Amino acid sequence: MTSKPTRLLEQAHAELDVLWRAGKPGLRAAEAAFRGEMDEYWGPAFERFEELFYFYVDIAEMLSRQCHNENGLWAIDLTSGVPPPGGWLSQAVHVTNMKTVRTSLAALQLAKAGMCNDAYALCRVLYEVYLVRGFIVQHMDALLVAQRYFDHVAVTEERTKRSMEPWLSEEERASIRDERNDPGSGINRLKQKYGSEWTYFRKDYGWAFPNREDRNGTIVASPNLEDLARFVTKSGGHHYVYRKASQQLHASVAGTLGFGSWDEVPIAPVLRGVDTILRYVAPWIRDAGFTSLEVMARDDEQALGLEEADQACVDLLAKLTDELDDAVEDCRRRVRERQKSDLGKRDNMYETLRREKLLGIRRGQDDGTESGWEALSESLRRGEGGPS
Asked: Is the pTM of this model over 0.85?
């Protein structure tokens, strides 16, 4: 007998095939209807999130200007040994800000599109960036760790080349070998710079623990992300968001089902999960803003001293976060009320339209025209409901 998960996944595959057969005109109408519902129920929460996000972008831009040279260009010379504009610590926070901005914006766009499963996976990226930034700034040797963070890029590049070699031509492999044998190459420069510590530095997070020793006085040979989590969060390990986001990132059963359940495997965009995304992304944005202000306020990147204007920015970040949380809760309450109403029979209009198209194709009654979709869309707006 076929298991229930297997049957549901087979059903999802069949319905995905129907989406392709449904045709673009009908899908456009369904997408437009869904966007209208998303804006109706989650619009206020998205507005509060964007207020927080773009205020953080303004703060990140202030730090960015400190990290560019007199020509307005961002460039770091790792071979000269000369500190870059703004110093190593500011540069480290700056590059983590760039990642936070891009990933947060991607998560927001996915949430607006009803793809909260995939947006949830990006929460893991934001969490990892939060740990890296927090570890660097909180470390007692912050300037040293920040410089090691940039040095480590050569290790990453070397690992990438080694993984690519089996797939390259002989000429391309020879070019990589020649570069590897060049005493002035990035990887050889680091071997000379770190000497006996190279064995530890070349690990995934070798940049993070300069001469770190355990209780027995032994140097930690293979620091990992969970070591950073223990240091930054002062807890026993990773935050639960990391575990849950990892499930959505990987191709496990939990990841393929997403926010669905054993009763339904959602293929089309859904309204569910928006509150989760906004509430999980906001803290990483707020922390990045806090840290950027802190670093900009340091004298010679050593002493923390927030000025009155900076403290006002900190307070505003906290205030915007609280307002976002209130807006999310209010929108969530409205969605729950909607689900209890007659319209609650459908998860969203896109899903209802898709299912009606599926039923029509299966019954042999669908003519593939846009008018049928528009009629159904209009009936749903009047509250007549979808397929029973």
From this structure: no
